């Protein structure tokens, strides 16, 4: 998880589903968090950055430094001072929903 100078905050959590997570080289969830924070000045822009990177490069790779293979998909919470989004992912696929509230 992290935050940037524009007040954009992103957190991620490992998720598993029916589709197998790829163990080939691709972006890890933490790569997507870092790149979203680096390139976005709003929550909506961070969502766009992460979605575009997922579609182009996918996600995967070994999430452990030892010899075991540990892979997963990611769920993200992306927020700034004005809005928040939930982003669910599976491989190169994603779905997002804006959080509505007071």
From TrEMBL:
Gene3D superfamilies: Penicillin V Acylase, Chain A. It holds the Pfam family Peptidase_C69. InterPro entries: Peptidase_C69. GO terms for molecular function: cysteine-type exopeptidase activity; dipeptidase activity. GO terms for biological process: proteolysis. It comes from the Eukaryota. Belongs to the peptidase C69 family. Secernin subfamily. This is Secernin-3. It comes from Acipenser ruthenus (Sterlet sturgeon). The lineage of its organism: Eukaryota, Metazoa, Chordata, Craniata, Vertebrata.
């Amino acid at each position: 998880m992290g935050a940037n100078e524009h007040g954009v905050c992103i957190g991620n959590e490992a998720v598993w589903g029916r589709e197998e997570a790829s163990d080939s080289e691709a972006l890890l969830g933490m790569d997507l968090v870092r790149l979203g924070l680096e390139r976005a000045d709003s929550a909506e822009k961070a969502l766009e950055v992460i979605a575009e990177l997922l579609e182009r490069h996918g996600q995967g790779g070994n999430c452990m430094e030892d010899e075991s293979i540990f892979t997963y998909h990611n769920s993200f919470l992306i927020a700034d001072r004005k809005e928040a989004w939930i982003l669910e992912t599976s491989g190169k696929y994603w779905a997002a929903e804006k959080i509505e509230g007071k």
